[in-house]
Specification:
Order of helices and strands: HHEEEEEEHEEHH
Helix content: 25-40%
Structural class: alpha+beta
Shape: globular
Number of domains: 1
Distance between the termini: 61 Å
Largest sheet: 4 strands, antiparallel
CATH topology: Jelly Rolls
Strand order of the largest sheet: 1-8-3-6
Oligomer: single chain
Length: 170
């Protein structure tokens, strides 16, 4: 039995996979350890891996200055999410080959991640269509939930801006 099968079974991304399918995913998984504050990847980089948090915490952050109307504007990166055991990040790399839309860093002292490369996972999904279908369905559901959560956060920010004292619409 593979090293991560029980853990993979607990994750949303690999929910409802058979024991054999979980073994196949386990066989392409790598373990990677990080210290608190260590960068996993940076925004706008070209890495193509998916990560699952086996132990510890990961902060997802963005640099608001990247979309500033002032070229070269420098701003402090803002944490937009803190993820815990069993959660995944970097999934968009499975869907497209664009750059990372955010950065990620270890937020706990002894963070352990399970890393799965895009190429290896897509090869597995293409070779075993039933496994591929289940993984991609789970991926779509996971990304859908993350989009819904982001939408709610955007609405909260917009609501706060329009109802704060001194705003034009207050």
């Amino acid at each position: 039995m593979g090293k991560y099968i029980n853990f993979l079974r607990e994750t949303d991304l690999f929910y409802n996979l058979s024991p054999l399918q979980l073994e196949m995913v386990d066989s392409i998984s790598e373990e990677k350890a990080y210290r608190e504050g260590e960068i996993i990847f940076i925004e706008n980089s070209h890495e193509k891996e998916l990560y699952l948090i086996f132990r510890g915490e990961v902060e997802i952050f963005v640099n608001p200055g990247l979309v500033s109307p002032t070229p070269g504007a420098i701003s402090r990166p803002e944490v937009i999410a803190t993820l815990l055991r069993g959660q995944s990040f970097g999934e968009v790399a499975l869907v497209d080959q664009g750059v990372r839309s955010a950065g990620a860093r270890a937020a706990a002292r002894d963070t352990m991640l399970v890393k799965i490369s895009r190429d290896r996972l897509l090869t597995l999904c293409n070779s075993y269509p039933e496994l591929g279908y289940r993984v991609m369905l789970n991926l779509a559901q996971d990304l859908s939930q993350k989009i819904r959560n982001a939408d709610l956060k955007i609405r909260e920010v917009l609501l706060y801006q329009t109802h704060r004292p001194g705003s034009a619409q207050a």
